[in-house]
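Marked as duplicate of an earlier ticket. Keeping the data here for the record.
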Amino acid sequence: MVVKDDQLTNKASDKAPYTVLSIGRFSPEKDQITLLRAMRYSRHSDEIQLNFAGFGNLLDKFENEGNRMIEEGVLKYRPQFGFYKFEHLRELISESYLYFHGALVEVEGLSCLEALRGGVVPVIADAPLAATKDFALTPQSLFKARDARALAQKIDWWIEHPEEREDAGQRYADFSRKFAIGKSIDSLIEMYRSVLDR
């Protein structure tokens, strides 16, 4: 499905909370803990709702960290954790202001592409073993992997520049279309033909 301009419902807003969405299993290589830690350095931590879509053995650790930040007054909105069906996930994407992608090792970044297709601006870890960083269209969408302070700075920048966030959301939605399954299959066929023709 191609997302059209009028289907992008996550328009920039100056009203809290700003939802930051992360999608992926709760495991060390996805590095969601950096997103939680970034809230300690963000100027807008009390305006941010973190939403973690996934499951995994680090859930208790993440929940404990989120609860501790609520108790300390770092966060106003308790982080949400859940494993969602596709339709609910699409709804979460449409409601999100930013998408966090902290993977340290990854070859496809499908969850990031899904978020981009929905017009959500990503903040992506610049990790040597993760291909997803190539989806970043602006330096403001990249942060040094595992660096919570750097991530907080990028999140704050997007919150403080809502018009740029709205424009970037449309650019990312347009960009994601070139990765549609039909175009990807055509590219794969062309690659195989070029090899066979040698």
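See parent ticket for discussion. The first strand starts at residue 18 and ends at 23.
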